[in-house]
Amino acid sequence: MKASIKITLSVGILLTVCGLTSCKKYLDRPLDANISEKDVFTNFRSFQGFTEELYHCLPDMSKTTWNGEWNMGDDILSTTNANYRLNAEFDNGNYRAWQTNGGGWDNSWLDDDPGKIGQSNNFNNPHVKGLWPYSWYGLRKANLGLANLDKLANATEEEKNVLKGQLLFFRGFFHFQLMSFWGGLPYIDTVLSSSARLELPRLTYRETALRAAKDLEEAAALLPVNWDASPVGQATLGNNQQRVTSSAALGFKGKNLLYAASPMMNQEATGTATYDQELCKQAADAFSRVLKLSENGESYYKLLPWERYSENWYTISSYGKHPGYPEVVFGPPSYSPGNSRWSLVNMFIPPPLGGEAGISSPTANYVNYFGMANGLPIDAAGSGYNISDPWTRRDPRFYKTITYDGVQMIRGSANAAYRIANLYNGGNLRLDNTASRSGYLVRKFVTDGCNNTDNEWNSINIVIPYLRLADVYLMYAEAVLQGYGTPQGSFPGYITAIEAVNKIRNRAGIPGVDGRYTSSKDAFMGELMRERAVELAFEGLRWHDLRRWMVAGEKKYTEKTAIDFDRGQDGKPVNLRERVVVTRTFEAKHKWLPLPTNQVNLYPAFGQNPGW
Q: Taking the CA atoms of the chain, what radius of gyration do you get in angstroms?
């Protein structure tokens, strides 16, 4: 967190965010290249161009390195020759690997190429956008914009509000991103001088979160609900889907407050490892407003229909069409669709199909969270789960997310030996060092055309969202459950926790939560935790959930497992058994990532996180 971070004021007039056409008058020209503050800040078009660089400060967590990792919980198991990956380092307790020189072989999306920060020729290069450096850069830029709003003379009131709303959103958003990994931090709400003495106090998590919530609430009041329906959005009509909206601000306000209310953060604030009911109620209020805007048609966010479910993460298009619309509330731009193959697909496709020498597979323990088509967990009485036929009649999301033995891997006739997934013991894709280590493969981000025979990977664009509407429904359910005390509870005048979860389950064609899990808060919370694991699998949220719930150190969540089995003549597994492959290290210090030593030593009051 350097006060002297260099800010290059690259100004693109209505700069491209999701394929928008941009004017070139000021594009790529730094402030010190014949552009004065008057040129930048006195009219809406140039001020908006300045503001839109903030969208380019959003890392695409899946593409910041050639073969990085963004899933760091109990969900992913890397091959033995990929032990430099971030998830493997975290399994060993080496959280310092989040830094590019911390042991992660520069495979961390959290800290990547800070030397290139703010350079306009890198706006569309996902490989230089680490979360740590770009969040601080974004905070300074947001504060610089806010500090210069009084210079904006040639603008309507709505235009002024939209600029201020975006700047406040990003200030709250970047603080939330940072504190969710590193804990409470100084809240930077002014432009810091490089010559000033740093004395900003480090706040607690709760204090930081409350400051962020205030910014996000104010942003929500200023931002359009729907840019296309607002006068300010007419210049980019039809191309506004990735711009920050009132719903995005409210969604992150709710998420920020729910995290602050969660047991790990509440224990720091109060000494009690339970939920803060009042903060949960405030979170439920914010979430309910997002969902009402969706349901009454004011915002354009909707749950994608089941037949388009995978469009939440990828699209197949020669034009690199951005995925997520209309369910994704907020996410990074499509910086380089072609990197989807090289930075992402290759991580999940074994070498004989054209993938990396080392890949990431789902852990068997995580796959067990996917229940049955009747809505029950696999270990529930009456579920119908059969260990001799374990992949039949499962939750439909299982088939969208997981590749299991016998699933088609190639459409064409070439490379016939690998046309189906041979994941049984001795199968050609069951190799600890280069293929599946667990007996499963990730399906969520690939198709059976993503291989070196069919080459569909050349037209796939994968972007993992920061927040989608399904997550808002599930967080609303959690906030209501913990704030109002029962699964039947609700934010006044809105749906119950049960109804919110069932919205997501019903979209996949499975029944609502069984009655045996709705009789108590604890029983429902267990099913809600499972629902989050299924619906949000491999989207980078699991590590945060396990920590904030204060369960990350429990045996159930530290043991990563694989399945062993033979394939019978009927193609079904024989002698299936599960074994522990890795036991994750999780101690008290692993609640937070360690701060960089050179940043900790900037001034005494900043300090290091406990245990590091």
A: 24
Residues 6+ apart with CB under 8 A from 422: 405, 428, 429, 430, 567
Residue type, 111: D
Q: In sequence order, what E strands does 466-572 have?
A: 467-468, 559-567
- What angle, 0 to 180 degrees and rounded to 10, lies between the N-to-C axes of helices 277-295 and 469-484? 140
DSSP string computed for 294-338: HHTTSS---PPPGGGGGGGTEEE-TT-PPS-TTTEEE----S-TT
What distance, in Å, lies between the first and last C-alpha atoms of the chain? 17
Q: What residues does 403 pair with on adjacent strands?
A: 441
Is beta strand 402-403 parallel, antiparallel or unpaired with respect to 573-583?
unpaired
Dist CA 139 CA 189 (whole Å): 8
Query: What gap in Å lies between CA 606 and CA 612, rounded to an integer?
Result: 14
CA distance 289 to 277: 19
Helix axes 263-270, 246-261, angle to 10 degrees: 60
pLDDT tens digits for range 79-122: 999 888 899 999 999 999 998 764 445 678 898 765 566 666 67
> What pLDDT score does 193 carry?
83
CA 488 distance to own-chain centroid? 29
Give phi and psi for 470, each to the nearest 5. Answer: -60, -40
Q: What is the pLDDT of residues 184-224, one digit of tens each?
A: 999 999 998 877 777 888 999 999 999 999 999 999 999 99
Read off the tokens for 330. 């907020």
Q: Which burial class, exposed, middle or buried, applies to 383 when counting CB atoms under 10 A from its CB (0-12, 13-18, 19+)?
A: middle
**Enclosing H/E stretch for 573:** strand 573-583
Q: What is the pTM of this model?
A: 0.93
- Cis peptide upstream of residue 396 (ω within 30 degrees of 0): no
Report the pLDDT averaged over residues 384-403: 98
Find, among 451, 418, 437, 470, the residue nearest to 302 by Cα.
Answer: 470
Place of tokens 């002698």: 575
Q: 183: phi > 0 → left, psi -120 to 50 → alpha, else beta; which?
A: left
φ, ψ (nearest 5 deg) of residue 478: -65, -45
Give the closest residue to 548 by CA, choosing from 178, 99, 94, 181: 181
Contact (CB, 8 A) for 480 and 500: yes
